[in-house]
Amino acid sequence: MNLTLRAPGTFFTHSFSRTFSPSKHILRYSKPSPSRLTRKITMSSAASSATQTVIEHIVLFKVKDDTDPAKVSAMVNNLNGLTSLNLTLHLTASPILRTRSSPFAFTHLLHSRYNSKDDLSAYTVHPGHMSVVKESVLPVCDDIMAVDWVADDLQGPAVPPPGSAIRLTFLKLKEGLGEESKSEILGVIKGIKESFGEINQISVGENFSPARAKGYSIASLAVLPGVKELEGLDSKQELAKAEKDKVREHLESVIVLDYVVGSPQSASL
After folding, report:
1. Which of 8, 16, 129, 204 is 20 to 30 A from 146, comparing alpha carbons?
2. Measuring CA to CA, which residue among 191, 265, 182 is closest to residue 222?
3. Distance CA 58, CA 111 (A)
4. Rounded to 5 degrees, what angle do the CA atoms 221, 184, 169 make?
């Protein structure tokens, strides 16, 4: 059994569209310079024992069936190359390890962190980012979803160590749910770390970019040391059920995905 919340309900999708300015160049993935890598590691280490506020940005991609694997690999590599924009605290793109619960068939994701909403906005409109999306992402994907939230009081490093296993959860709430119920859900998720010792870090918040979120309004991610600990999390069936039962009545739909953080030097299928 896994830590997956399921709820009955109807699901809907809508297409992703955006106008991109033309650009002559696509960023290619390259190993971060020693100075940039040292700076990010230093920031991560300094924050590891304190709380901080970061902006979380998750994008889910569904690659078209029968897409040339070389084009998929290029998409992942070029997305990882966006670390060179120097606007992110953390950025990784990878295939999804496992889909635990979802009405959609996403295949890949991008996770990045920022110091502020302004940094995220600058990243979004940067010509390098827009070029990668236009040239490498849109031609091979037939569905895209994005969710952004503010993670207050985040404990631990802003940069999850390579090899970390991440459990990502998006919640679509039932219509008419009040603020008290939302606060209850957020509180339950924040408290999960106390019940599951395998979890190193919990990030949770309300989505502030609804246009591309398909109606999902609460997001969270749990950082674990690796896949082994992720499997250990799933083995606690009764404890997982108890946590799910606390919020199940408020949910219309749930997406739960697992992925593994890659190393800064590698990006592949």
Report:
1. 8
2. 191
3. 5
4. 20
Q: Which residues contact 245 (CB under 8 A, 6 or more apart)?
A: none
Q: What pLDDT, on a 0 to 100 scale, did the predictor assign at position 264? A: 65
Percent of the chain at pLDDT above 70? 80
Residues of the chain short of pLDDT 70, as ranges, are: 1-49, 264-269
- Angle (nearest 5°) at CA 227 between 94 and 259: 20
Residue type, 108: H
What pLDDT shows up at residue 25? 43
Contact 145, 214 (CB under 8 A): yes
Please name the residues in contact with 42: beta carbons below 8 A apart, sequence gap of 6 or more: none
Sign of CA dihedral 15, 203, 248, 187: negative
* Residue 169 β-bridge partners: 220, 256
Q: Two tokens at 153?
A: 């009081």
